[in-house]
Every structure is written in C-alpha cells, then in structure tokens.
Amino acid sequence: MKLFGLIDCNNFYVSCERAFQPRLEGKPTLVLSNNDGCVIARSNEVKELGVKMGAPFFKIKQFCTQEGIEVFSSNYALYADMSSRVMTIIRQFEPFVEVYSIDEAFISFESEHPEALEEYFIRLRDIVLQSTGIPISIGVSTSKTLAKVTNHVAKKERESGVCILTQEGAIESILERFPVGDIWGVGRRFSERLQALGVKTALDLKNSVRLREQFGVVMARTIEELKGVPCQALEKAAPKKSIVCSRSFGERVSVLSALEEAVCLYASQACEKLRAQDSVASCIHVFLEASAFTADKQYSGGVTYPLPQATSDTRVIISAAKSIIKRLYHSGVPYKKAGVMLMEIGKNSVTQGDLFLENTSEATSELMQTIDGINARWGRSTLYFGAQGGPSGREWKMKSDSKSRNFTSAWDDLPEAS
User: Which of the four pLDDT bands, split at 50, 70 and 90, describes residue 386?
Assistant: First the structure.
C-alpha cells in the first residue's frame, strides 16, 4: 500500500526558543514578525489566553506584560538551522522526503501493514525530540491531503503525537468533524463558497459531486485525495526561478548612503542563495517603497537592469544595485522598505559567455566559494563587502528588541554548561 506522511514541528519557532532556554517550558511564549510587528508563533499557553495569530504587538503589549507572556523577536538564523537538523534526522529514517516548509516535511513509502507502523514513528519522534529538543507530530494516510488531516489529529488528539489512518470508516469519522476551511488547499475564499453550497465538513466535500465546473481541477484533485486517491506525488526541490531579498526598515530612511548599504546587503544575501542552488542570474530588479505618509506616491517604484552576462558574482550584482538605487532615490523622502530581486535564473554550467568580455568565471567561482565557505563555518558576515556597511553600524536594520542569541550559528552565542 502506498502511504504518505506529514511530519510537522509543533509551535516551531517557540519550540526553537525553548530548546535552548528550558525556563520557558510551560510558560506562555510568543514570537513576533519582522520589526516586532505582529504575532507569528504561539505556545499552547498563549493560545489558551486568547492571543490570535497575526495580532499586532502594539495592541497586546500591555496584555503580555500583565499575563507574564515571554516575547521574542524572530531569530531566523536559529530557526533555519534547527529546521535543517530536524530534516537531516528525518532523512536518516525515510529516503523519500519533500521539505514542504521550514517546519513541515512530507514522506512517502510502501507498507502492507500500516497499523504496525505506530511504534516506528513514535521512535522517530522521540529521536528528533532527544536530538534537537523539537517536538513533532506525524500523520500518515493514503494521500498527502489526508496526511495533513491525520497530522492535525495527531497534534490535537493523540498523546503519542502519531496518527495513522488507512481504514475507510476511521477516515470518514475524522472527516465528518473536520471543518472544510481547514482542508489543505481550500482556503478562506473557497471555504465561504463551499459553505454557501452546504459543504461544511471534509466529509461533505469528499461526497460532493459536480464541483469541478465551479471550482476547477485543483478542487477536483482535493476531492480525490480525500477519497484516498493520491493525485500529488512528492516533489523534488526545484531551483528557484527568481530570488528576492527585502526588508522593512526599523526606522524610516532618507539618506542615500544608508539605502545603498541596505540594498547591497540584500544583493549579497540573494547572491548567496543563488550560488547555493548552483545558478546564475541575467537580470536584477531593485525597488524602494516610500513611507505611507509621503504625500507623493511617485517615490515608490523599481528599476530592472539586464546584466552584461549571467553571473552569481556578488561584486557585479552589488555594483548594479548601487547604480539602480541612485536612479530611484529622491532626497529627503522617508523610505520604509527596499529590496532586490534576481531574475532570469539558469544553471551555472549552461550559461552563454560574451565574446567581448574577459572570461573570469573560474577565478570568480573560487573567490565566491571561499567567501561562502568562511561565512558558513564562522558565521554570516564574518566576511562581507564594504558596500554593505558593518553589521554593528546599520541604523536602518530591523527592530528586534527581544531577539534571542544565535545558539547554533555564532561562537559567542554558544550555550554554556556549568
């Protein structure tokens, strides 16, 4: 029997914080988005207090103080590293893995006796928890959509954190009380339309007929998946066709030199991602967004610039980004956000050279690999280009007043054992 599983890290960002700060266990804890804007992760204790996902922090700040809620700024370096560790352990158990998001992975496998697999997955769950401190839930069924449903059951209703459902009757009893809006791929807009047609639960959707004309082929596939017919195989991670790095500033920026630093930093980060997938880009787009309180909206916009030849050389792309930002900049305008997008991305091995430009690709590749290697080993920004500005002097950087230490990726932040 072909089976699919969904492995989901519980309250992932909060769990990452707790893994290195045991004092947080059992305490209400939440994590904020960029610039400490809104809630993006909540512990179960915070959920019980009624704090909603996406709640603006300035509205609940006093409530958090009153209730003793621990508040953290997002620490994406920590979360990405912990995700990588979890996925590495999963791959040791299951060879066919699709990393769906930073805290979720699909697996697929064959089994003639699925009812005997619970002990196996409990062992996987225990090893991940022991090795990383991250609790996970595992749902297994006969399609990816049903694996999503069973994972929800595993997280909410099973003490073991594992739920395996393959029998028709058992699956239908779950679908009968599963809201249609919570089904993977349905979403709020489709949910409202479906409920207007009397389709309120996953079982209603599974048993519905002639919805394809109204909702299209994607909904038809979802219905088939609810019936246990797999319509979606595991997907291999495909190289990205475009790479974007952008951030909102912690404070409004109106000085050209600060904007140049920010854009050059984003260009450098985009180039790292480009090289990580062994690709080169032929085009760069840089954009600026003015503050919403700026009277004239003409100061927001972007410029696309074709590069002389496809490259992943940070120096070339930084130079292009700086020339674009000078064209976009207007003196005295308070800007709230900037970003860089690399486009027309292709494989490094099949790029077209230029007859009139010197071929320095081999030396460039060695230099960039050296920089990436040093930063991977000793921490991001160990080596950086001067145009990015020093890490300690970036007054425009995001607000992160409550950010935890980089426990796994910076020597100075390593936990100390006494």
Answer: confident
